Amino acid sequence: MSNAPLATDAPRNIVSPVAAPVTGSDFAARLRVNSEYIVIPLFALLIAAALFALFLLAIGKSPVDFVAYVWRGGFGTAFSLQNSLQRSAPLILTALAVAVPARIGLIMIGGEGALVLGGFAAAALAIPLVSGHAPVTLTLILMAVSSMIVGGLWVGVSGLLRYARGVNETISSLLLTYIGIAIMNFFVEGSLRDVSNPNKPSTMPIGEAYMVGKIPGTQVHWGFAYGVILCVALYVLMTRTTFGFAARVTGGNLRAALAQGLPVGRLIVACSAIAGACAGLAGFFEVTAIQGRANASLVAGYGFTGILVSFLARHNPLVIPPVAILLGGLVASGGLIQRRMDLPDATVLVLQGLIFVVLLTSETLYGRFAVFQPTGGRDRT
Fold this sequence. Notes:
The chain is mainly α. Helices cover 66% and strands 0% of the residues.
């Protein structure tokens, strides 16, 4: 086993630090400590919004009109709200692909590659099953399992490299993303291409009968519901189980974890594999609920937007769904903004980039304000 450094050089403030000890009855002190993790991200959002408003003014556009179109395109009507919820489904799952490794001190950004490969694996497996008229339920289960396995293995490689060889997981997961996209393109444009579709390289369509349906009474596919359920399940796993406690100990102090005899290597690989499985499941729903096949449309940037969602949620699975809905609404309004304000669709990406940069900068503010410190608590520097 290599003696290369493991996860000790990962940023220590990936997960909200444990607050200074206070008595159970001191609700005000607890509220003061925990409010820091709400106030600072909100402050970062306001700063990013102000910078983006200056950007719009500089190019001769109205920030007020922009906000109005975001509201109308993302949340203003029943149709736009359901569109936002549908777009938030892959964001929830790819955000979990960042949040779970963060609990053990890893910064994984390979959700996009796991999503693409997971969706491709599901579509490729569906070809013989659909051609053989396999039962719909069995086919969908096998497709979902294959997408989760492929995604888990893909991101799990980054965790294994981190533990065994000390390879930076951020760099390796990012590079593996582009390798995964290239693999998908290789097969979609080659041996698995549907020759009946000359316009856009794709796998054979799975057919309407094998598509995932909508949640009753809505136009939102079941990926959203499963994403929310998975958020709750992973929150319980990471906060209420021995596995989650061991992961948090490892992320907080690797040497202490090793001294206690915790299986650090297995924990790192397991958290990475769970992350990849979540992103792979997002690819499954993109194929079975949206695209109906695997093609270049799978590379939609959901994995990268999921990074922003996770950081805004402070890597808390329970906070991820509302943040994903907010970002999903922003994405859903992109077309309306493009038509009404004569702005390119990349305008939304500019705003997302500003939010991410300002949010990362705001990480330096934690522990520096006395108002958030409990009486007798020590400042963190």
